[in-house]
Amino acid sequence: MNNVQNIVSDLGGVLLTDDDTGLVSKSTLTRKLLGVNQHDLESGWEKAWPDLKIGKISEEEFMRLFIGGVGKEPTEKLIKNLKEIWRKNVTDLPFLNQIKKLKGKYNLYLLTNIGNEWLAFKRTKFKLDDYFAGIVSSAQEGIAKPDPKIYSILINRFNINPGESLYVDDLERNIVAAEAFGFRTILFESLKDATTRLHVLNVEE
């Protein structure tokens, strides 16, 4: 029997490309622009991302830390170019269209680790507010998944019963945190697997 009333999804890596796409994971342009290797990019990301995702720094400050973290001078031109690269590489993934079709039958929510400016860009580009009844982000709350506090914020803000809810994420640590609250979960690994799991749970259009 299906008693799922709510579907909560991660954003990057599930519905849209990951935030490091373009800057790190698909980084040919970034490596060429900065003249560094893949290891350098990953190191720069790790220095800058933790503070961006909990709202301690702005996108501008992130870019300065990221560029400085790879050993380069964060000029205004480099910052501008990297912002453009990031935006050009943000694309939707096939699962987004599948989730959109569930609007009306289920209450849809987002729980995502993301910087403020990046979320604002995605909300506008992909019209997320047309489909999702609520969005809880790490930067707005100052807390990131898998900290249990951010799941509690989601549950309390939107009066969600985890026992009537499904949570989808591509990171196992976030899935484990959701399961501790009683969510049914899907560890997103591919569109095919996620679709199969939805059918098993009788979550359909």
From TrEMBL:
Pfam families: HAD_2 (PF13419). InterPro entries: HAD-like_sf (IPR036412), HAD-SF_hydro_IA (IPR006439), HAD_2 (IPR041492), HAD_sf (IPR023214), PGP-like_dom2 (IPR023198). NCBIfam families: HAD-SF-IA-v3 (TIGR01509). PANTHER family: ALPHA-D-GLUCOSE 1-PHOSPHATE PHOSPHATASE, FLAVIN MONONUCLEOTIDE HYDROLASE 1, CHLOROPLATIC. This is Haloacid dehalogenase.
